[in-house]
Amino acid sequence: MPKSTPTRRYNLTEGSVGLKLLALTLPMVWGVFSVIAFNLADTYFVGQLGTAQLAAMSFTFPVVMVMGSLAIGLGTGAASVISRAIGEGDHDRVQRLTTNSLTLSLLIVGIFILIGLATIDPLFKLLGAGSEVMPYIHDYMQIWYPGMICLVVPMVGNSAIRAAGDTKIPSLIMTFAAIVNIALDPVFIFGWAFIPSWGLKGAALATVIARSLTLIASLIVLHFRERMILWSLTCLRNCWDCWKEILYVGLPAASTNMITPISLGIITSLLATYSPEVVAGFGISSRVESFALIAFMALSATIGPFVGQNWGAKLYGRVHRSLHLSYLFCIGFGIFIAVILSATSAQIITLFDTNSEVVNTATRYLAIVPISYGTYGILIVANAAFNALGKPFPAVVLTLSRMVVLYVPLAYLGSWLFGLNGIFAAACISNLIVGLIAIIWTRRLCSLKPDQKSDSSMISPSKQPPLNLSDVRDKTPR
């Protein structure tokens, strides 16, 4: 298979580091925004059905978040090994890794579907669901569980596309899915024309249909546009070797993503000792926070392919430069967001709820925690870089340190000493400390490799140049 220098669109090992990161990140900002938007739309439309239906959907959130974390983990593992293979210029390996990452996700999701369908009653009763909501949970999960294939596989596929240096297509796919989901929600939930009212079943069906379109779209792009899928059978040993590489990064990444929601559940239980209004204020401020952090999440989704390709191509100077610029952006944008929220938080919160205690709680949160948004952005960027380098355990240690070692204990201590302000200060302090540790750790890890100039012309003739995906697409038989 021919190997040559990639086209400018896919080659992340040439050109301005800052401009490349900007071009990768901007499309992802819209993609992340669309995902958050359709999750909010789902909640809004289900809330129109009644309290019991909304409660039933709320009980499904932990399961949905666990499966989402699994999908993110598998996608992270796939993107890590694929981007480094692209940087090394080995297209055969890129195809094997992409194909085997998809088959691995199918195998794992198939097992979870069988387990999930068999354990709906015991699992959700363990979570505290009563008899009044269990019928609605059955309605939702009996559709959602089989539809997990359409959740996990496209996320892995889109991660493979991003590993090739293309963030526009995954962003367009995510946006299209969000539009379809939002459009189908009221039709299937409340009924329209010849379509009956399906209630909570309709919400699940709308999500599965939207996700199935992303499955089709990602496979079409991977096969026809990127030429990254093999349709021939590979030996079991080769398949197992690829799976181990993917899981070496993917399992720790999935675990890392599960730590945060579990820890936040503990914090929510602590806030519940104050009043329901405090919990509501915390929930609203968390939603506002998710929008404020979109740029950081988009950057973390794009730093992985950039670091992976350049590390695989042995262009270590570009890796150093990308992290340096990313950290500067996080600090600058974090300060900007903190100032904006400090000045406007009260007005923003009253759009959701006018209860004085709710507003007071949320504004206190948004006056304290955003001080640390810059270092929190650094943390999630550093975690993405560690995973891209094939070194997932620093990301696990940093996340555990932030949530389990610092945030939860400090929150209980702060609550005892200073009340709500102490809990929110605990989040701020945790972000600041672990963010600074992340900077030191990434610099130390990168320094383990000899620094080289970032100019692609400095590649040794004995090294294969980065992979030309466009050239492979043109010369691979259909």
TrEMBL record:
Cellular location(s): Cell membrane
Keyword annotations of the record: Cell membrane, Membrane, Transmembrane, Transmembrane helix, Transport
Pfam families the UniProt entry points to: MatE
Positions with biased composition (Polar residues): 455-467
Region (Disordered): 451-478
InterPro entries: MATE_fam, MdtK-like, Membrane_Transporter-Flippase
Lipid biosynthesis among keywords: no
Keyword Cell membrane annotated: yes
Gene Ontology annotations for the cellular component aspect, listed alphabetically: plasma membrane
Membrane topology note: Multi-pass membrane protein
GO molecular function terms listed in the Swiss-Prot or TrEMBL record: antiporter activity; xenobiotic transmembrane transporter activity
Residue ranges crossing the lipid bilayer per the database entry: 21-41, 61-82, 102-123, 143-161, 173-195, 201-225, 246-271, 291-313, 325-352, 364-386, 393-412, 418-441
Alphabetical list of NCBIfam families matching this protein: matE
Entry protein name: MATE efflux family protein
Species whose genome carries this gene: Lyngbya aestuarii BL J
